[in-house]
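for the writeup, i need someone to sanity check this before i put it in the appendix. the sequnce is what the collaborator sent (i think, or maybe the updated version? ugh). structure was predicted straight from it, no edits. if anything looks off just tell me and ill rerun, i have time this weekend
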Amino acid sequence: MTHLDAPSLITLALLVLLAAAADIRTRRIPNPLTATGAIAGFILNTALHGIPGARSSLLGLALGAALFLPLFLLRGRGGGDVKLMAAAGAIAGPSNTLLIFVLTAITGAILALVLLLSKGGLSTVLRNCALILHELAHLRPPYQRHPELALENSTTPKLPYAIPIAIGTLLFLAIAS
């Protein structure tokens, strides 16, 4: 875990809280918000740490995007989630982004389970997981033979994923400070 200075902590917290609020309200994370977060992260890191800060910001951005890109390509996450993690990575740097990702994944799994248990759909999700694993084992995109597996066609309850990203990030900030 790399130390984050106060401006970066505040910027990161504001980014994920605003993204979560937007995702809850509209089920979208605005591009101007994620772009502003990424640019702010690059500027902050460069201004505070010079060339190493710029490098850290770019690596964090790339790692944040790379961690969520496979799920986006499999249509299991929206593009806004990818861009939000990339922007968070631009602020936090690569080592912190990895920890944020782990905390986000744990939070997301818990929230998804709570959502499925409260609204139903656990059996559908388990069946879909089996279909996804089967298709991936045969090196096929799961949604080609099973369009219902694509996020936009899903009938199971949907979790605005900026919420777990925000909670995972805030947990990271609590640990880091």
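The CA atoms of residues 124 and 130 lie 10 Å apart. The longest helix spans residues 31-73.
thx in advance!!
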